[in-house]
């Protein structure tokens, strides 16, 4: 699951395109299937979104939650792809993008009535 935060007046108009760019990166770097898009947008009023000096109103925070297993070089490749593609397709400068990857053990995920470590039918790899 991916959660994206930003100022509402900037984030709302680009949600669809940003979702497409993020998912394309997830597919190309992690091999995620098309039907595994799980994005949550949290548009905030400017007075409710504090961010570091030197950033613009385009400042966007992307939190990627995933089951543990991807190698550090794979995670770094994902982060770099996101910076490059978001900048290229949405003209958001890398200084205005913050990305965090949060990994949890498979048993800490629950979906389709089971935990992640019980799922034997995932159509993507966790150890890449």
UniProtKB/TrEMBL annotation:
Entry protein name: 4-oxalocrotonate tautomerase
Xref: InterPro entries: Tauto_MSAD, Tautomerase/MIF_sf
Highest rank taxon of the organism: Bacteria
């Amino acid at each position: 699951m991916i959660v994206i935060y930003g100022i509402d007046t900037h984030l709302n108009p680009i949600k669809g395109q940003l979702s497409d760019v993020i998912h394309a990166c997830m597919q190309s770097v992690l091999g995620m299937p098309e039907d595994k898009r799980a994005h949550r947008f949290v548009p905030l009023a400017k007075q409710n979104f504090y961010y570091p000096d030197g950033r613009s109103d385009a400042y966007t925070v992307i939190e990627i939650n995933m089951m543990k297993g991807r190698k550090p070089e794979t995670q770094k490749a994902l982060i770099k792809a996101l910076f490059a593609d978001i900048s290229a397709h949405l003209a958001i400068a890398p200084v205005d993008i913050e990305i965090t990857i949060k990994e949890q053990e498979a048993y800490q995920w629950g979906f389709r009535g089971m935990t992640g470590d019980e799922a034997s039918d995932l159509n993507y790899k966790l150890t890449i």
